[in-house]
Structure formats: structure tokens, C-alpha cells
Amino acid sequence: MRIAIIGAGIVGSLIARELTRYDADVLLFEKEADIGWGVTKANSAIVHGGFHEAPGTDRASFCVKGNSLYEKISRELDVPFGLIGAYVVALANDEVPALRHLYKQGMQNGVPGLEMHNRETVLAHEPNLNPSVVGGLWSPSVGITEPWSLAIAAVENAAANGLDLHVDEEVISIDAKDGRVKRIITQRGEYEVDGVVNAAGLFADRIAEMVGISEPILFPRRGEYLLLDKKVGPLISSVIFPTPNEMSKGTLVVPTIDGGILLGPTAEDLDAEEKEATETTHDGLREAIAGARLLVPELDLSLVVKTFAGLRPETADRKFVVGRTAISGFFQAAGMRSPGLTAAPAVARFLACDIMAPDLNLVKRESFDPMRRGIRKVLDLPSKERDTLIEVDPRYGRLICQCNHVTEGEIVEAIHRGARTLDGVKFRTRAGFGRCQGGFCTDKILIILARELDVSPNDVTLRGKESKMLSGKVRS
Ligand SMILES: Cc1cc2nc3c(=O)[nH]c(=O)nc-3n(C[C@H](O)[C@H](O)[C@H](O)COP(=O)(O)OP(=O)(O)OC[C@H]3O[C@@H](n4cnc5c(N)ncnc54)[C@H](O)[C@@H]3O)c2cc1C
């Protein structure tokens, strides 16, 4: 039994992990040079509570179930997770009915611990909020994660359980004659398969078209962000939502897992073909700043270290497209707009265990090991342990990224775990993610990559394909 998953975002990666619980050859294909570089890379990283979703929808049930799985899955995969709670705030009395509506919706969806708070209670929890706040909906089950780290960790764990990972390998067609999937064709080769999972994010419509299926129809909705450096300190302690609008949950102020603060996202519909339009715009960033300042007026914009944009894979009816299809052996986990990150663990479990396992007669393997260890953060180790580590391997004593305190030892470990590019190292170690945004460490990491991969520094790329960093002769 051979199953191919298309797309190593959070959804495909978690599905791959679930499928390695069974006795099957599982292959994961990703067109980019690494895991989690699609929609999974650029979003608000919130593990939503589920009160924003309409009761009775798949989105609501997958969101609430996914939320409840996050703590365990993060522990198993050794990925940071912060259960910090969230406030949805009303800044005027006429917004309070909308908060009551969210409360009611949340109760119907089974969201635990929801409470309506008055102005005083909200400000006692979050003293830096706009003083004109009139009340808030408190949701203690909302958390924050690091989406790409979870995807990488899921793939590492799946690989330890037998997954065959193919990065930099785009699926270009699928042979599905006589109503059944038979082969997938990539730009590198052909693979006989019994099952295919379409988890291709923004490109899931193109994969569905390959087998003649017209759902989902996707269009990108861009969200722009600004990231404040961790120097910002404890300005807020929970996720702050405004009262939502028709189009989105609004512009938020979100603590990040490593101590920074994220402002955004905006919501701008793009044409269906604009699936790579992740550039930021002057207007979008101004809108994000204005929205965030309405919630937390004292945001210090001199601490902005990065701006970026993500694209939501939207469907006209806002539904997830999860399950079997008219083509035997072809399954979809598509249209994964927000709260797709939250829903992903539940979607993966549902699709792999409840749909695919019975359809494909999959048998559980006794030997599946759910545990994975992350890269050790040397500076977080107790000093005795750190000293011993450095004594055994002095590379753990050489600091390469000054901002995020990442050592050469950690970078080498990231490369040995699969990083092939500067972004690959960055997303695994946070080297280059700090205040200087790689200004002081990029050259050093590039040299380490060249050495460990045994290639010329000229061949090291930022993020694969043609993104080479150097041209001309490099002195050693
Ligand atoms: C602005 C914004 C904010 C959001 N905020 C949140 C939030 O706070 N909480 C939340 O729960 N959700 C949030 N979401 C939604 C969440 O980010 C997505 O639901 C989730 O990341 C989707 O993951 P995915 O794996 O489906 O897609 P992706 O991460 O895009 O993965 C699909 C992968 O498929 C690959 N691929 C495509 N075509 C092919 C091919 N032909 N061959 C091989 N590989 C291919 C792509 O390169 C990509 O890596 C947000 C989204 C956006 C854009």
C-alpha cells in the first residue's frame, strides 16, 4: 500500500505523521525546498478557541477539537505552545452585542471557560489596552504556537516512523483513469500509488483539477503584518482581538511564542492567479498599524523588525473541503483558511484514521513512536549541562546569532536534520530571526552550510531554486 501526500504545510505534515501509524509506504511531496514554506509560514500563529466559527460547521468542530489536541501534540513533538488566552474587546457600547453573539456561539461550539468581562476586569488583566474599552470576551483556551516548527517536527517524527520525504519535487500530474488514482507524476519521476492526499494549500484547486475535480475553487486573501522585536517586553499577556467584521477576525495584537508582538493581519481579496503575491503594501501596513493602535495605543513602532504578508486560501462559501472524493483513492484536505492551523491536528486525525484507514484497509503498526526531540537550545540548558556539552563539542560554545543566541552546534544540528538553505536554518533555529534580521550572522551561517553540505558557498541559497546569495569568486 503506497500513499502520496501533496504539500508539506501544517496540514500535509500532520496527515503524514498520522498515516505513519499504519502499515503503509507514505510519501510526502513538497514543491519548495523545505517544509512549511506555504501558507503555514505567514499567519497569526494563534490556536483559536472556536468561538468565531458558526455552530454546526466543520470549521467549528475541527477548530475546537484541534485546539484540544494542541497541548499533547506540542509535548510529543517538543514544539513550544503557549496557552495564554485571548480577549475580544469592545471599544464602544454598540460592539457589545457582537461579543455576546461570539459568547453564545462559543458555548454552542463547546469552547471551554468563556467569560464576559467588564471594563475594569479587562483593564486589570491587560492594563495597556485602549482605556476606552467597554468590555471583553475572555477565552482561556486560546494559545499561540510556531506553525512551521510544528510542521517540521511532525515531518521529523513521521520520518523516524518511516515517511519518505521528497522536498523540491513538484507534483505535475496525477493519473486517475477509470475513476481511481494510479500514479503521480512529478518533475523528477513517476510513482505508482494507491492513495493520494491533496494538502496543497493555495494550490489545492490545481491538484484537484488534475483528476477532474472542480472543488475547491480558491482565491487568495492577503493579510499583512508587522513584527515587533522581543525588546517590546510584556506589553500584553494574551491575544487581543477587536470585535470582528464581515471579512475577518480583524486586526489583532498577538504575542509571539518567542516574546515579540505581531500586528495584523489585514484582509484584501486578490485575483485567483495571485497565489504568490506575498509582498507588503504601504496602505496595508498603515491599516495594520492603525487597527493595532486602536487596541493597544502605546505600541513602539521603532521596534518593528520585519513586515510580511500571508495569503489565506479562501473558498466562496468559507468551507473546508476535507474527505473522500468521487475519485477512488483521492482525498482532500483543502480550502484550509483560518482556523486551519488550529484545525490541522483534528483534520489530520479525521482524514487518516476515520476516512483513509477504512477506505484503504490500513492496519495499525505497533512500532509507531509519537515522540520527537527538538534541537537543544544551548543557552536554555542548566549551566552544568551546557558546560559538558561544550566540552564534548566546542561548536555548542560558538555563538553565531547574537540576537537569538544560536550556536554553531545548533546550526549544524539543523543542517543534519534537513536544512539545506539559509531559511531552512532560520526556521529551525531562529538564527537570523532577531533584531538584526541576519545582518551579522548570514555570512557565518552560509559558510557553515557550505561546509556541512560540502558545496561551494556560491551554491548556497536563501530558499532554494534560484535564490543564490553570492556571485563571483569567494575567498576562503
Ligand atoms: C494571514 C493569515 C492568518 C492566519 N491566521 C491563522 C491563525 O492565527 N490560526 C489558525 O488556525 N489559522 C490561521 N490561518 C490559516 C492557516 O495558516 C492555514 O489554514 C494553514 O497554514 C494551511 O496550511 P496548509 O498545509 O493547508 O497549506 P500550506 O502551508 O500552504 O501547505 C501546502 C503546501 O503544498 C505545497 N504545494 C502546492 N502545490 C504543490 C505541488 N504541485 N507539488 C508539491 N507541493 C505542492 C506548497 O508549496 C505548500 O508548502 C491564517 C492564514 C493566513 C494567510
Description of the molecule:
This protein is an alpha+beta fold. The protein has helices at 10-19, 58-77, 96-109, 119-125, 147-160, 204-210, 282-295, 340-359, 383-392, 408-416, 422-429, 442-453, and strands at 2-6, 25-29, 46-47, 81-82, 86-90, 115-118, 135-139, 143-145, 164-166, 171-175, 183-186, 190-192, 195-198, 219-228, 239-242, 252-255, 261-264, 268-269, 304-314, 321-324, 330-334, 399-401, 406-407. Strands 9-2-1-13-21-20 form a 6-stranded mixed β-sheet, sandwiched between helices. Strands 14, 16, 17, 18 and 19 form a 5-stranded antiparallel β-sheet that branches. A hairpin with a 3-residue loop joins strand 11 and strand 12. Helix 1 (10-19) runs parallel beside helix 8, helix 2 (58-77) crosses helix 8 and helix 10 (408-416) crosses helix 12. The longest helix is centred in the N-terminal third of the chain and has 20 residues, at 58-77. 49% of the residues are buried. The mean pLDDT is 96. The structure holds flavin-adenine dinucleotide. Flavin-adenine dinucleotide is lined by residues 6-12, 29-32, 37-40, 43-46, 48, 170-171, 199-203, 207, 223, 265, 310-312, 336-342.
Largest sheet: 6 strands, mixed
Computed structural class:
alpha+beta
Strand order of the largest sheet: 9-2-1-13-21-20
So what's the oligomer here? single chain
Mean pLDDT across the residues is 96
Provide the helix percentage: 25-40%
Number of strands: 23
Radius of gyration: 22 Å
Any ligands, ions or cofactors bound here, and which?
Answer: flavin-adenine dinucleotide
| Tally of individual helices | 12
> What global shape is seen?
globular
Give the CA-CA distance, first to last residue. 49 Å
- Uncertain segments are none
